[in-house]
Every structure is written in structure tokens, then in C-alpha cells.
Amino acid sequence: MLDKADRDQNLIVDRMALEAEIDALAIEHEGNPEALRLAVVQVLKATLQQGRRTIRAWFEEDRLGTVCARRLCHLQDELIRAIYAYVTRWVYTAHNPTSGERMTVVAVGGYGRGTLAPGSDIDLLFLLPAKQTAWGESVTEAMLYVMWDLGQKVGHATRTVEDCIRLARSDMTIRTAILEARPILGDTALAHDLAGRFDKEVVQSTAAEFVAAKLAERDARVVKGGNSRYKVEPNVKEGKGGLRDLNTLFWITKYVYRVKDPSALVAAGLFTPREYRLFVEAEDFLWATRCAIHFITGRPEERLTFDLQREIADLLGYADRGGLRGVERFMKHYFLVAKDVGDLTAIVCAALEERQAKPRAMLDRFIAPFRRNKRVVLKEARDFVVETGRLNVVDDGVFQRDPVNLIRLFHLADREGVALHPDAMRLVTHSLKLIDANLRENREANRLFLAILTSRNAPETVLRRMNEAGVLGRFIPDFGRVVAMMQFNMYHHYTVDEHLLRAIGELAEIDRGGGGDEHPLVNEIMPTIQNRTALYVATFLHDIAKGRPEDHSVVGARIARRLCPRLGLSAAETDTVAWLVEQHLVMSTTAQSRDISDRRTIETFAATVQSLERLKLLLILTVSDIRAVGPGVWNGWKGQLLRSLFWETEPVLAGGHSSVDRRASVQQAQDELRAALADWSAAELDAYVARHYPPYWLKVELARKVRHARFVRAVLASGRSLGTEVATDAFRGVTELTVLAPDHPRLLSVIAGACAAAGANIVDAQISTTTDGLALDTIFVSREFAEDQDELRRAGRIARDMERALRGEILLPDVVASRTASRPRTKVFQVVPDVVIDNDWSLRHTVLEVSGLDRPGLLYDLTTAISSLNLNIASAHISTFGEKAVDVFYVTDLTGAKITATPRQNAIRARLLAAFAPEEAKAGK
Q1: Around Cβ 340, how many Cβ atoms within 10 Å?
Q2: Which residue has the higher pLDDT, 167 or 704?
Q3: Among 338, 620, 329, which residue's Cα sits nearest to residue 498?
Q4: Quick one: 816 and 915 in the same domain?
């Protein structure tokens, strides 16, 4: 069962000694079967626990995943044999057994493969003869009760050989289980009968059926899991590139090639010795990871979550090195292994097609214009042929004769709209050493690569094939540095290389005119840009310097200046690419973290951008970047912020606007509101317009101005000065809560506290003060429910709590503390808190930029601190990037002046930093 090099099995469990101890207990408790059962369970439980402790200790020393799984399987085998001996000797003894009083206990499923994780289910088949007595069922039941008493989760079935064959014909799950059946104990004749009949009556002539079913299962599982092997919290067992994929490969090959062990696949001609080593190494790594998860959590957890990654990296010996933290090195290894599993899958599928055990299928978006059964040699590229609808090489010397063919292959696949033949991809992976400095500098190779990158067909798909084959990382070495690199944070959903490829896909989708409902402005301006090539190259390079000690935007710009001339870009195009890479975050940062209605914000941003063409390019790159981060990161709210910034900046770049323009804009906004409120009297309109200062007219869109006006009139007409209103905005994915209340420094703090108590996530705050001392604040919170009715009920509860808090009917500190006592998974991350105090970012306000580890109630604590410092908050901009919060407040002192004194700034900084301190530190413990 165990490798010869493994440790002494008896150190895990000595079954002979265990059975002797049980026999002694049977004599001691003769005549008292219940006492005997309890004593036996205690002995077995102690044996199981000690065995697992031994196995875990060995695992922490040698870190051998597959060996650990086999050791656990051996421990389970010996326990089952001891349980069987106890039951048949002392519970249901057959003194003169007949042919009906026999059985075979068979391991199936993962257990049948001879491997178990610490939290795995135990899948058993109790195989009984066709003619049986009550003895078999009694023994089975007694064994199961003992295992349940041990706390084990057992999947079991009691069947005859005939039952197994009949069910296997119609049930693919049962067929797979029997395929891996491994007898543990009992009558060997039954096991041999099952194996022989299963092979002859089920397996023969059904290979195509089985392969199709297993691949369909895999496809469904992959789609359910997110259809990517590069998710930063992967499922080790069920995810793409995980253990289940390896299992599926072996099930299929075992069924088709009729082998009993994966090592036989080399002799069968499926794998080369190197590829088989890859299989073994991938299996060992994935088993090590899975066993580590189960040991650490104490449960059958299969997801490699952020809060486990660091601990597992330490357990498996990954240290900080080369600018990467140990946890990032571990996860990079994980994703490289997942890629290897994908390569092995392609090899197996190609071989199955050749045996006609798998239907031929096209890949991804490719639609072959060629007949499926026709072989066509490409006239312009005689080294390549299209056969069975896919691009292949004419012989194995294609790349050796001309290394440029390693790039040309992918260019032709994109140009002709055909998928790549697995044989060609396999040859590519064996020819990677041909990609050297000479090929990287080859003008034709670079021309072809640039054509792929900027293709109007399917650049993301082709680049991904190049990456999976290893070509992309060798041809662009700086890209190779970020292959399989994850960033240990909750914001990025994919590895860096996967993010870059998805960004190209998002850009290509915009280029085709898709997704206009989600980002209409970029679709409108995309056809007007002059530097399409520069935009694609910048998108491909914008995060290429991640994982280095320096700012990745600055280093990325240097890489762009070095790489672009090699790709054939002009000096002007190179400058544009380098600028876009260096500034690729500035638009999203400005839109989400600055007050766009503040003239200084627009002037500063416009000075950075400098031209309308660059503004267009930066907007499209920013949208592509955000949308490629992961599901749910892009929303209509971010789109609206970016569009507002674009529209505010465009006239500045077109010629600038003066204070006269600003006054004219205010007057125009007031006239638009007057026209929209045609049912109001002139006196009412004059009085309402006089309530608002100029910034209000510039930063609030007309529809919201109209709602505000009617809301304020209704509240004041009722004789109140406090009121709330809620509205949903499905396009932007937010819910609006508008509050009218007497202005005071703690107002935003109270509003934030009410939201924190309700678990509502604030994404922005639009704050206005009227000329008669009222505050008109609109808070935007993330939408929680899909249906408006449900969302409005939720928002209504939050609004009522706000009113109660503002009336002093709720003690917010106590409520917030009780509602936010449980901390989220962000505790696993480390974000050094920082407070930037700047007087240049705004003409009239001091800007406080506060960043640190996000947590429930943080915004409440920050706004409470600001109000306790006697500061007025004129504008707040709330952003969360995974576990990192970046909140920006535009403030003045109580006289409306900026904060310029250094001691006062230091006091503000210290007070805000204290909000990030541990609770016990803040309590003075």
C-alpha cells in the first residue's frame, strides 16, 4: 500500500496488536455486549486520533502530499479490518459459514484510489453473494455503527455483483465508482467476479459514451466554479486545474486504455516520461495543499481561502524571496500546477480523438470555415495545415526550421478563425527553447505578435493559448515574470497574467461595440481614437511590473519604452503607451476619491492628461482595467463617476473654463430646474434656488435636483426640519438615502453609524449645506437585493434608523459596537494605515485621505473622530478595494478655513490613525 521508502506502517497503526487488544476486551466484557462495544469504540477512536497525529507530524516534516494521502488511507484500511474482525469474531460469529455467509468490503471513489484527505468521506461497497443470509446485512450494519460512533462520514452501498453490473450500465456515477473499486478484505472471489464482469459487460465498447459523460461533467463543474483556473481563492478539489481534473483524466484513460495505474500510460504511449512526471508532481502538490487545508481547519474544507493561504504557505515551507512574499510564491506554484493539469488534459483529449473515443470539438470562440474532414495546406504558410477544422503543423520539424513559426502558428489561428490542434500545441511546448534573444528581436516575429495583440478577431483567446503553451512568457520575458502571480489581497480576483488577458478581452469587446448598456461613453468614443495600437499595447502592459519593489506603474512605463520599439511602434506611439501605463490608475483614483465639483480637482487632472486624445485613451483603458479585475467589481456607479470626470475635463482640455464659465454653468443649472418645476410659483422657485450655494448646482444632476426640491418642500411643509427619502438606481447598482436635517459637525457620523448598524456599505456621500443652516445629504449604499421592492424596504429601515439616531432615540456607539462585533476575513491581511493631509488638492478645503484595513464600522469611527476634532465635512468619497479602505474627506475648521497649522494637522493625523488600532488598544488596555 505504501511506498517502499515510506516509514514503518506499524508506527501508524499496529493492527495485530489492535486486534489482540480488542480480543482482550471481549474476554473482559463477556456477556455484556454494550459495554464491549463502547470499550472497542474508545480503543479505535484513540488509535485513529494517534494515527492521524503521527501522519500529520510526518507530513509537516516531509511535506509529501500523495504519501500523506496514502498513509491516511492505510490507517483507514487497518481500522476497517480491525472493525470487521471485532464484528465477525465477537458480534456476529459464523461458526460454520455457508456460501451465503461471505462478503467483500470494497473501497470505492477516492478511497478506492488508495488516497484519503484528513476530512474525506469513506466510500464503501459491501459486496454480497447472490444467495445470502441475514449474516451479511447484520455484519454490514454493525460495522457502519462502529464507524459512525468514531465520527466518520461513511458513504456506503450493499449490493450483489449482479446489482453492480445492472446499475453500472445505466448510472455513470456507479460505473465510475466500480472502475476504482479496491478490495480491502473478505472473499476475493466476489471481487474478482465483479472486476471481470464489469470489464466484459460494461467497459468494453462503451469508451466513447464514458468519455463524453466525464468530459461533460467536467465542463459543467468548471462553468459552475467560474470557468477559470486562475481565481485567487481556488477550490483545490473541484476547481479548474484541481484534483478532480486529474481524477477525471485517470478515470478516462483507465477506461479507454484499460490500465490499472497511471504509470502504465507511458508504456501505452499516452504520456512521455516527462509528462508522466508532471502528472505525479501535480498530484503530489495538490494533495499536499488539500491535506494541509484539512489539517489546519479540522474539516473537509476544499477552498484555498485567503485566511488559509499564508498559514499553508508557511506549513509547506515557502519563504519570502525575489520581491514576492512566501504566500505569493506558494500561490504562484499553485497556478503553475493548475496550468500543468490543463496541459495534460489537452494531451489526453488529443489522444482520445485519435482513438475516436471523444468527439472532435472546436475551442472557445473559434468557428472554422473549413470542412471538418478536409485537410487543407495553407498556401501562404506551407508549414501549416488545417485538418479536422483545426490548425496543425505539417511535420515535427516546423519550428526547428524556422522559429518564427512559433509566433506564426498563433497568428494564423487568429487570421483563419480556427482552433489549434492539440498535437501542434504539444510540439510548441517541446520547442520553447527556440524562443531566444534572436527570435525576440526578429522583426517578422514582432510584427506577427503585434497583429495578434491588436486583432479585431479574438486577441484574448489567442493570447491565452500562447500563455498556456508558454510562448507568451518567453517571447515577452517581462510578461513571463507575472505568469501565475497572484496579489495577496481581496480586490484582485485573478492572477496578474489572467487579469491582463481579460483586460485585452474587455477592450476587444468595446472595440466591437459590445456592452454599450454598461459603458455607453467608451463605446461612443472608441471609434474616434487615433492611437488604437497604442491603446492595445498599453492595456497589455499596464500591470506587467507587478510584484517588484518599485511602483509598478513607473517600472511598467520603463518596460514600455524598452519594448514598444521592438514591437515596431513609432516614437510617438511609444510615448503614449508609456504615459498610459504610468498613469493608468489616475483616472479611477480621481473619479472615486476626489470631489469632481471642486475646480482644483479638474484642473489638476487636466494638467496630467494634457490632451483630449489621451483623455479618451485613459478612459477606455480604465474601464477595461476595472472590468477585468473580477465579477462584481465594475458597476454603474463607477461608470457614472468616470463619465462625470470625463465630461468635466473635456471642456478644460478643449480650451479651459473661467470663473465666468462657472457662473454661467450655475445659472444654466438653475434655469433648467426652474423649467423642470413648472408647477411651482415664481416665489417658491426663487426661495428654493436661493437655498443652495454654487457647488450644489454644479455637482448634482438635474433629475436628482428635481427630487431634492420636491423632497425639501414636502418636509418643510409638514413643519419638520428632519426627513429622509429613499430611491433605487439599478443601472448604477446603488441605493440613495437622502437626509434633510439641521446641519452640525456630527451629522455625517450619525448617518454613517446608522448605515454601519444596518450592515449597509456606503460607496459615496454627496453633502450639501443650505444657506439657511440645513444639510441636504445623499448617501449612496451598495444594493443588496435584486428586486426594487425588497431593496426599498431595506433602505426604508435604514432611513428610519437614521431619523431615530438624529433625534437621539438610539445610542449609536452601543448599536454599532454590537452589530460590528464579528470581524470579516480581512483580519488575515495587513494594510499599514496612512493619513495624507493636503491643502493643494482643493481651493477651499483641506483634503484628508485616510487609508487602511477595512472593517465594519470604520467609516463611523472616522467620521466620529473628524467631528470630535471640530471639523466640518464638506464632501466625502468612500472607496473600498478588497480589504483596503480609501476614504477622502474635504474639510474645514468651524470658521470655514483650511487646516494649515502643523500641530493641528499632527493631532488630526494621530486621531484618525487611532481608528485603525486594535479594539483593546483603543480601550486603553
Answers
A1: 18
A2: 167
A3: 338
A4: yes
